[in-house]
Amino acid sequence: MPIHIALTFDDNFWAPAYAVMRSVCLFTTHRADLVFHLCHRTLTDEHRADLAKIETEFGAKLVWYDLDKSELFVDIATRMPVNKRLSNIVYARLMIDRLVGPSVERILYLDCDMLVREDINKLYRIDMEGFAIAAVRDTFAPYIVGGRDLVGNRDIFDIATPYFNAGMVLIDVAKWRDADIIGRMEQYFKDGVMARIYYDQDLLNLVFKDNWLALDPRWNVIDARHSHEGLNPAILHYTGKTKPWGIMSGILQSVAFGRIYRHVMTNELFYRFARHRWKRWWLRKLGVK
């Protein structure tokens, strides 16, 4: 039976997208069942060819969705709030039910700053107990919703209410569709709520309040550091400023499974991605878009 997995990324994040897919493939024995739904901004031919290697190496299937050709995404990405750290690609996951075909009943969303080191089939086949989604509670939730001194947005959130991290979400597509996430977002935008909250993650927590299944934290180990290796994490989530694709001295030792991550991405792509990022940094420094 197919295992449907969705990723969202732009052309500057193609290598981490490849790495998370390859980690899924390497750590499962169900490779031929994997179907990756790639919700992407327009890719260069070179980067698309890199991603396509997942099919040839593992026999998995890739389904491509060019978001720049989606009128709905372009409209949302243009109007909704973003910041410099988070690209407007974050809104793409809200449209998953409108992108995938009617045959997809369940789909696993994964952020691209992740490393999977457990058979994903174990997560994908869990009993969702009638909930719309399954996720892991976010350890930074009080600060995310409450800010300094935990006093912000009290008219929107109660910090005593369990809050999930949206980097890994197992989705019942029919229930996701019934929740009318885009419609709710438009109302929150009209009411001024979208300008006050943490983008799509806060939105999803508002939409699915008390309607999500809490999973074991090992399925989304947030701000994955070297000390987390002893917890036997199933999915590492590199939410901190230090990323496993950094090449500065000490980075591989400061993030969990940093050396394994490099070889999952492959040495060749790891260093090509490093050159790509340095080029972008210098272009921004020089004021060249």
Task: Itemize the secondary structure elements and their pairings.
Elements: E1 3-9, H1 14-26, E2 34-40, H2 45-58, E3 61-66, H3 71-79, H4 96-99, E4 106-110, E5 114-116, H5 120-124, E6 133-137, H6 141-146, E7 164-172, H7 173-178, H8 181-191, H9 199-207, E8 212-214, E9 221-222, E10 235-237, H10 251-254, H11 258-265, H12 267-285
Parallel strand pairs: 1-2, 1-4, 2-3, 6-8, 9-10
Antiparallel strand pairs: 4-7, 5-10, 6-7
Label the overall shape: globular
CATH second-level architecture: Alpha-Beta Complex
Q: What Rg is obtained from the alpha carbons, in whole angstroms?
A: 18 Å
* Average pLDDT over all residues: 90
Calculate the terminal CA-CA distance, rounded to whole Å: 45 Å
Weakly predicted, low-confidence segments:
none
SSE arrangement, N to C: EHEHEHHEEHEHEHHHEEEHHH
Q: Strand arrangement, largest sheet?
A: 3-2-1-4-7-6-8
Reported for the largest beta sheet, the result is: 7 strands, mixed
Structural class: alpha/beta
CATH fold name, please?
Spore Coat Polysaccharide Biosynthesis Protein SpsA, Chain A
Helical segment count: 12
Q: Using DSSP, what is the number of strands?
A: 10
Count of domains:
1
Q: Beta-strand level of the residues, as a percent range? A: 15-25%
State the share of residues found in helices, binned by percent: 25-40%
Tell me the name of the CATH homologous superfamily: Spore Coat Polysaccharide Biosynthesis Protein SpsA, Chain A
- The CATH class, by name, is Alpha Beta
